[in-house]
Amino acid sequence: MGLADLRRSYDGTPLTEADLHDDPLVQVARWVAEARDELEKATEVNAMAVATADAQGRPSVRIALLKDLDERGLTFFTNLDSRKGRELRENPYCALALHWQPIYRQIRVSGPCVEVDRDEVDAYFASRPADSRRGAWASEQSAPIESREAIERRMEELGARFPDDDAIPTPTNWGGFRVEPDEIELWQGRPDRLHDRFLWTREDGAWTRRRLQP
Ligand SMILES: Cc1cc2nc3c(=O)[nH]c(=O)nc-3n(C[C@H](O)[C@H](O)[C@H](O)COP(=O)(O)O)c2cc1C
Questions:
Q1: Tell me, what CATH number does 38's domain have?
Q2: Domain named Pyridoxine 5'-phosphate oxidase dimerisation C-terminal: which ranges (predicted)?
């Protein structure tokens, strides 16, 4: 059977105008909460695709974890010198997609992003397990390395450099990006490919919402 024969029906619950909050970030928070309730045991509900583009407009995409969501936007943490970090510093526009297959839902977000303040970065970094914090020091994310042994050796060196779990500082090249959305789309899969889609766009601080064709 070829890929073209793979086909599912999306029997999602209807998404109507009456279900939606006027503020799409509040609506996104509701959907994230619902996804947690239904799917947290089965999957990483905060895993999202993060798309960036370089100065020539050439896109790249990878998964990162949504770690904060509030009225300012959506935040993930990463190495600032990684490919995505370099691209976002050249071109701050970023697009995100969350997908929860079992409940037939997708959220798309796009807008410029800003770097998260150092005090917020430090607070999040401190909450990570000690070896993840050492790992952030060990990895020059996205740079080539000659072998697995080389990174494991670096990890051992970091164990000697930072023996105290409570005294591992945040690397200066590690931080967070907050996407400040100017577009948010909720997609609810429905039968016969007649999906429910709502797109909010922000202009001069005010959100407008339209239903889109599936
Ligand atoms: C489920 C999952 C979660 C991930 N979470 C993060 C994350 O929060 N931050 C991060 O920098 N990379 C994360 N990664 C790794 C990225 O996908 C990617 O490999 C890495 O950030 C390097 O990307 P870049 O070279 O495009 O910068 C995650 C990968 C997976 C599969």
A1: 2.30.110.10
A2: 174-214
Per the annotation, the verdict on 209 as an active-site residue is no
pLDDT score for 1: 80
Q: Does the residue 160 lie in any domain?
A: no
For 149-207, how does the pLDDT look when each residue is reduced to its tens digit (9 = 90+)? Answer: 999 999 999 999 999 999 999 999 999 999 999 999 999 999 999 999 999 999 999 99
Residue tagged active-site, from 36, 128, 193, 211:
193
* Tally of domains in the chain: 1
- 140 within a domain of the structure (yes/no): no
**Ligand 1 midpoint to CA 141 (Å):** 9
Nearest to 173 by CA among 80, 85, 92: 80
What is the C-alpha radius of gyration for the chain, rounded to an integer number of angstroms? Answer: 20
How many other C-beta atoms can be found within 10 angstroms of the C-beta atom of residue 162?
16
Atom of ligand 1 nearest to the CA of 142: 25
pLDDT digits (tens, 9 = 90+) for 141-158: 999 999 999 999 999 999
Q: Which residues line ligand 1 (CB under 6 A)?
A: 44, 47, 60, 62-65, 76-79, 82-84, 141-142
